[in-house]
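User: I'm writing a tutorial on reading structure tokens. Could you give me a worked example: one chain, its sequence, then its tokens, then a sentence or two explaining what the tokens reveal?
Assistant: Sure. Here is the example chain.
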Amino acid sequence: MRYLIEFYLNYRDLGDRKQQVLEAELARTAELAASGTVIGEWRRADGRGAIAVWDCASHDALNATLSALPIWPYLSDVKVTPLIDHPSFPEGRLRVP
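And here are its predicted structure tokens:
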């Protein structure tokens, strides 16, 4: 199932661990993208977080994967919305006649 994930991150909360945590997060996100879990990720224009689309087998799998992220303890206002295909846009793609 696909999920829209929205979250905020205050980089000051990372303190002196900022470099270490962000490098670990980037490596883990690359692994998740390679496995097909992370479909896409975008930074928020206000610079305070990101929006991502993930594909996980279940709500439990999503929860386990999210909570194991190196950056998880520093995230706030996390919102998760399960997504389903729209009948006019199967697989999220526009049908072109």
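What the tokens reveal: The helical segments are 18-34, 59-67. The two ends are 27 Å apart (CA to CA).
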